[in-house]
């Protein structure tokens, strides 16, 4: 599927307490809190990649495990990382989202096949082999909720938000996810 538009949904937590925790994590890094939530950032579709490794500029980047919606002839779900430059994020979130490739799994699933057991799905990521994020996809707003706020057309991909980092946001040499 050719991606024509790439959207990064941010601040998408369902639970207000968890959302505030994620906002505080980013505030500690110097990131201004959002005025409203969720927020949708449009970024270059060229950042979307199926590569298993990406190149970054400097040590101030980190990944974020997310489910990714892919709108083609049918809605599909994949796994991705909204890899972000944290130093640039203190200047502007929109800027920081443009500076790193966004790796997405090669495998995707039809949403209508996944939806019946959606509440049982868990997102996990590791930085340098240590558990970095873990939680149910239900901690994040549902695909229907997000698409009602930002409708997807054919060729659109949307990263749908992430979970709080265990032990705080940090970079590393290797980021893996499931």
If you had to describe this structure to a student in words, what would you say it looks like?
- The protein is globular.
- The protein has 5 helices and 13 strands.
- Strand 5 and strand 6 form a beta hairpin.
- It is an alpha+beta fold and 178 residues long.
- The protein is 19% helix and 31% strand.
- The longest helix is centred in the N-terminal third of the chain and has 13 residues.
- The mean pLDDT is 91.
- The strands form 4 sheets. The chain has a 6-stranded mixed beta sheet with strand order 2-1-12-5-6-9. It has a 3-stranded antiparallel beta sheet with strand order 11-10-13, with no helix packed on it. It has a two-stranded parallel sheet with strand order 3-8.
- The protein has one domain: Fumarylacetoacetase-like, C-terminal domain (Fumarylacetoacetate hydrolase, domain 2), CATH 3.90.850.
Strand and helix map with partners:
Elements lengths: L4 E6 L5 H13 L10 E5 L4 E2 L11 E2 L2 E7 L3 E7 L2 E2 H4 L3 H5 L4 E2 L5 E2 H4 L7 E6 L2 E7 L6 H7 L6 E4 L15 E3 L1
Parallel strand pairs: 1-12, 3-8
Antiparallel strand pairs: 1-2, 4-7, 5-6, 5-12, 6-9, 10-11, 10-13
Question: What is the N-to-C succession of helices and strands?
Answer: EHEEEEEEHHEEHEEHEE
Strand order of the largest sheet: 2-1-12-5-6-9
CATH H-level superfamily title: Fumarylacetoacetase-like, C-terminal domain
CATH level-two architecture: Alpha-Beta Complex
Report the uncertain regions.
Answer: none
**Total domains, how many?**
1
CATH class category label: Alpha Beta
């Amino acid at each position: 599927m050719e991606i024509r538009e790439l959207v990064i949904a941010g601040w998408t937590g369902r639970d207000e307490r968890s959302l505030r925790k994620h906002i505080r994590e980013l505030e500690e890094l110097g990131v201004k809190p959002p005025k409203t939530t969720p927020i949708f950032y449009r970024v270059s579709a060229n950042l979307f990649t199926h590569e298993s490794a990406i190149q970054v500029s400097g040590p101030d980047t980190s990944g974020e495990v997310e489910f990714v919606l892919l709108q083609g002839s049918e809605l599909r779900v994949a796994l991705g990382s909204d890899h972000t430059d944290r130093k640039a994020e203190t200047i502007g979130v929109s800027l920081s989202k443009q500076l790193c490739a966004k790796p997405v799994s090669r495998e995707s699933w039809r949403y209508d096949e996944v939806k019946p057991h959606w509440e049982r799905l868990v997102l996990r990521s590791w930085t340098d082999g240590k558990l970095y994020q873990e939680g149910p996809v239900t901690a994040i707003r549902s695909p229907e909720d997000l698409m009602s706020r930002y409708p997807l057309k054919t060729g659109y991909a949307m990263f749908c938000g992430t979970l709080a980092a265990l032990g705080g946001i940090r970079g590393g040499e290797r980021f893996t996810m499931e």
